[in-house]
């Protein structure tokens, strides 16, 4: 494709050697490439091999005249766009009309003026080359649009596939969390809820019977969010539950789970965990904390207060023994409640980047009075929504409340 008419290729078709020589010299002097051809038959054959950018065509030629050459070229898909300027001594109006009807774009009468020939050649070359550039641009645009459309289609298909996988992952994650009350439904009420910041998350909770008089419960928070956190969450929760069924104390559970998580943990992910065992015979809860937020305890419907905890190590980071974790025991009698949660609640921010804070959580809990367990969590959710406003949820949120009947 030429950016200018300079060096464009022009074919001259004329049976007069003098005309061929003259036009060839004039055009070459202006740096055009020139292909002189003495008759129409040769011209048609040469054009099929290599098409010029413009044709100067005589009308009166032996064998095949200019009109027929033009008509054949315009009837061929490959050559119909080549501009053809007729050059002829025939000066009648009908001759010119016929020239335009067969497909010519201009008509120069012999004897011709050099300046006129050059001016018309230059004008029609510019128009033709601009047309070719536009066609090439349009073709490129169509290719680009098609490519982008195909890419968008592939992205949409990929998105749909990911959405489906995330939906299934969410259902699987939800299915591994317990629902409803524990087997000790006449002695203990439990309500728990988790809300991931994304489709799936790293927060978890669990509770299950260990034997006829004891029940295990826990709340955990895996580092990060999304699918990696969800996978690590599933591993951590499964390990905790397996060890809860096997071991006798919360600290043994934490130490053992920590050891397993350290093995081949190339991702360096970790989890904070608070777990406890409720002994209904002694009416006591024995608990152990691994870097998790401090639960709040309400004795006999009274005010809530934070359980005393140390800032202990999360699981999955460093080797640990029993002495590295804080453990404790509390009385848990009829009317007592314990509220467990993840830091996604206390660290929830509003548009001013202000956190919800543990102090506000304490104030909200102390307004719940005799509400049912499910109502307590709904009350906190309402206050959280009011605090966050239009700010997006930045972290997974989990809450669990246990009430001794």
Characterise the protein shown here.
This protein has 405 residues and is an alpha/beta fold. The protein has 2 domains: 9-138, Rossmann fold (3-Layer(aba) Sandwich), CATH 3.40.50; 176-404, 4-Layer Sandwich (Phosphatase 2c, domain 1), CATH 3.60.40. 41% of the residues lie in helices and 22% in strands. It has helices spanning 17-29, 40-49, 66-74, 93-102, 114-175, 226-246, 250-262, 343-346, 358-365, 373-388; strands spanning 9-13, 33-37, 54-58, 84-88, 106-109, 188-195, 203-209, 214-222, 271-279, 284-290, 296-298, 304-306, 326-331, 337-341, 397-404. A 5-stranded parallel β-sheet has the order 2-1-3-4-5, with helices on both faces. Strand 11 (296-298) and strand 12 form a beta hairpin. It is rod-shaped and about 125 Å long. The model has no long low-confidence stretch (mean pLDDT 90).
Blueprint of the fold:
Blueprint: E1 9-13, H1 17-29, E2 33-37, H2 40-49, E3 54-58, H3 66-74, E4 84-88, H4 93-102, E5 106-109, H5 114-175, E6 188-195, E7 203-209, E8 214-222, H6 226-246, H7 250-262, E9 271-279, E10 284-290, E11 296-298, E12 304-306, E13 326-331, E14 337-341, H8 343-346, H9 358-365, H10 373-388, E15 397-404
Parallel strand pairs: 1-2, 1-3, 3-4, 4-5
Antiparallel strand pairs: 6-15, 7-8, 8-9, 9-10, 10-13, 11-12, 11-14, 14-15
In brief:
By secondary structure, the protein is of the alpha/beta class. It has helices at residues 17-29, 40-49, 66-74, 93-102, 114-175, 226-246, 250-262, 343-346, 358-365, 373-388, and strands at 9-13, 33-37, 54-58, 84-88, 106-109, 188-195, 203-209, 214-222, 271-279, 284-290, 296-298, 304-306, 326-331, 337-341, 397-404.
């Amino acid at each position: 494709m030429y950016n200018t008419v300079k060096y464009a290729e022009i074919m001259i078709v004329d049976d007069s050697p003098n005309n061929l020589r003259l036009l060839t010299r004039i055009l070459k002097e202006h740096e055009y490439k020139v292909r002189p051809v003495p008759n129409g038959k040769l011209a048609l054959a040469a054009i099929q091999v290599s098409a010029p950018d413009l044709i100067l065509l005589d009308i009166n030629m032996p064998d095949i005249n200019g009109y027929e050459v033009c008509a054949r070229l315009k009837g061929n898909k490959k050559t119909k766009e080549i501009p053809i300027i007729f050059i002829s001594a025939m000066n009648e109006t009908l001759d010119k009309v016929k020239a335009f009807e067969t497909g010519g774009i201009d008509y120069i009468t012999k004897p011709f003026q050099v300046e006129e020939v050059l001016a018309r050649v230059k004008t029609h070359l510019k128009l033709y080359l601009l047309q070719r550039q536009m066609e090439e641009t349009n073709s490129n645009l169509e290719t680009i649009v098609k490519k982008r459309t195909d890419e968008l289609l592939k992205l949409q298909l990929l998105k749909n596939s990911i959405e489906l996988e995330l939906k299934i992952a969410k259902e699987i994650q939800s299915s591994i969390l317990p629902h409803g009350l524990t087997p000790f439904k006449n002695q203990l009420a439990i309500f728990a809820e988790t809300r991931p910041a994304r489709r799936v998350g790293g927060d978890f909770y669990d509770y299950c019977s260990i034997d006829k008089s004891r029940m295990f419960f826990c709340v955990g928070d895996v580092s990060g969010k999304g699918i990696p956190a969800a996978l690590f969450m599933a591993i951590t929760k499964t390990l905790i539950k397996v060890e809860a069924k096997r071991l006798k104390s919360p600290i043994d559970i934490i130490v053992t789970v920590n050891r397993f998580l350290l093995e081949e943990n190339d991702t360096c992910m970790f989890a904070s965990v608070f777990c406890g065992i409720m002994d209904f015979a002694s009416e006591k809860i024995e608990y152990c904390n691994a870097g998790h937020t401090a639960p709040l305890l309400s004795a006999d419907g009274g005010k809530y207060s934070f359980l005393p905890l140390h800032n202990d190590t999360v699981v999955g980071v460093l080797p640990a023994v029993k002495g590295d974790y804080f453990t404790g025991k509390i009385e848990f009698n009829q009317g007592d409640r314990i509220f467990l949660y993840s830091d996604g609640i206390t660290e929830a921010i509003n548009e001013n980047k202000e956190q919800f804070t543990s102090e506000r959580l304490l104030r909200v809990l102390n307004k719940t009075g005799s509400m049912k367990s499910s109502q307590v969590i709904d009350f906190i959710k309402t206050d959280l929504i009011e605090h966050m406003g239009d700010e997006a949820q930045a972290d997974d949120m989990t809450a669990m409340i246990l009430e001794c009947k």
